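Archive entry: two folds, one per protein. Generate the first.
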Amino acid sequence: QVQLQESGGGSVQSGGSLRLSCVASGYPYYMGWIRQAPEKEREWVASIPRDGSPTYADSVKGRFTISRDNAKNTLYLQMNSLKPDDTAMYYCAADTRWYIHASSWRSWQYWGQGTQVTVSS
């Protein structure tokens, strides 16, 4: 069982930056961020395995950076050049398995409660 707690959401103007954090209990292999905008389906944003390289959705590539500190069991998402289209509830997700299809949001085992990010134009 893995429990996740996000923090760092908020409101920012277009072009601004925010940093999300997620503290995990346990030792998940994969960790990632998934978001859901109002009236839209959940969308995978980025993920990173415990000992590998991160991957990103095309919509955030070059603007967002995912990282993790395994010693602290903490996941981060640095979001730069934010756009109104980035407005969503951002969920931290984790999985103990190494073989998941990480870019499919339905694959993930464990979810946090979410933190709201609002970007105004």
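Generate the second and append.
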Amino acid sequence: QVQLVESGGGSVQAGGSLRLSCASSTVSFSGRCMGWFRQAPGKERERVATINSEGSVTYADSVKGRFTVSKDNANNILYLEMNSLKLEDTAMYFCAATVRGDSCFNTLNFVYMGQGTQVTVSS
């Protein structure tokens, strides 16, 4: 069973920074696409960033230039560095993974997801 555990969420003022982490003791992050999604109250879940097995990354337009996704395959940790946080970044953030070999392209490929970590940005 794939288990993903997020950490690093919290409350921060607008303009501040947070770093989210996602770890797993049950699955290797290598060879699969990893991603971060978020969901704000009353809104649909949104893809935030992805990183594939070769290290290629994609970002939602709303976070480009402010967020950075990276992973440490040796230690099975996925990161999301979030800078210049805005009020609209407030959401539950989820770590997600595809099965080995699946691409990042299709959101439906992200069949594994953690329980989430809350990020709250205040003015």
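Annotation attached to the second fold: The mean pLDDT is 95. The radius of gyration is 13 Å.
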